[in-house]
Amino acid sequence: MKRTLTKMIVAGAGILALSACGGTSEDGGAEPAPAGQAGGTISIITVDPSNPYWKAEVDTAVQQAEALGYQTTTAAHENEPDEQNRLIEAAINDKVAGIILDPAGADESVAAVQKVVDAGIPVVLVNAEISQTGLAKSQIVSNNAQGATVGAEAWAEAMEYEGTYVELLGKPSDNNAQVRSDGYASVISQYPDLEKVGEEIANWDRQEGQEKMEQLLSKNPDVKGVVAGNDEMALGAINALKSAGKIDEVKVLGFDGNQDAVDAVKNDEMVATVVQPIVEGTTMAVEQLNNVITTGETGVPEEKQALDCVLVTKDNADTVQDFVVTE
């Protein structure tokens, strides 16, 4: 059966530098499309396109928007609310037709989204949500709790339900970090012989993941497992374990489903990862934003929409390519 995740990744690193080049209004902003028609510019504001997950998000958004007849601009806020505000203000000044936003924090982004709404510009959120409804036209996220649960169950089985482990946590302002950690804990707490002996915040970053894992290993040299809030931190942990000569002794769990992590699963360096359907979610986000621009409605009944994640183990790793799963 083919899962409904359409492969929409655009080749070429230059995609991130795309900018609008159409007509301009007298005050220098992009000329908005006539009401009820596709056209004009869609601003795509993401987190960090150096991370393969967010690169897939922005590449998909660009391809989908341009296929629908829009120009696009892309920018990244690096999870910094002040930078997000600056980018939002720039998009408003440019009179864009709509905004696709991966927000910089659930609470921190409410005011920024409110500013877009006050300017009369539709905004759709993807990957992360904000702590208020009724502002964004849609909030499309992965089912992080479900993904963490299935990932933790596979990891616990690989651990044979016993042993010490450590945890690498994502950026605290991103509510996905806590949701995944809670999901892991909900499963692991059922097995009393699994004992957490340390945790560190590594901010979704591979280099930080490696550094924090090195610190955890210095305090817990006999640790048997690692659960990480995303693949980049898990891959950093793997680098640290390789350097310490312990990669064959420690079971690692990741989350996102990026290709390096899938390859690590194939190579027995990672027990499992969990594919977030970011291609599907971003495609939906652009389609719903286009619906709002052209019809005034998203075309779906709910603002908040959660898509289930897919567990990836060695048994099905060959079916995963660029966040797309066929099975």
Automatic annotation (TrEMBL):
One of its GO terms (molecular function) is carbohydrate binding. It is found in: Cell envelope. Pfam families: Peripla_BP_4. Gene3D superfamilies: 3.40.50.2300. The keyword Magnesium does not apply. Residues 43-296 form the Periplasmic binding protein domain. Keywords: Signal. Residues 1-22 form the signal peptide. One of its GO terms (cellular component) is cell envelope. SUPFAM superfamilies: Periplasmic binding protein-like I. It comes from the Bacteria. InterPro entries: Peripla_BP_I (IPR028082), SBP_2_dom (IPR025997). Belongs to the bacterial solute-binding protein 2 family. This is Erythritol transport system substrate-binding protein. It comes from Naumannella halotolerans.
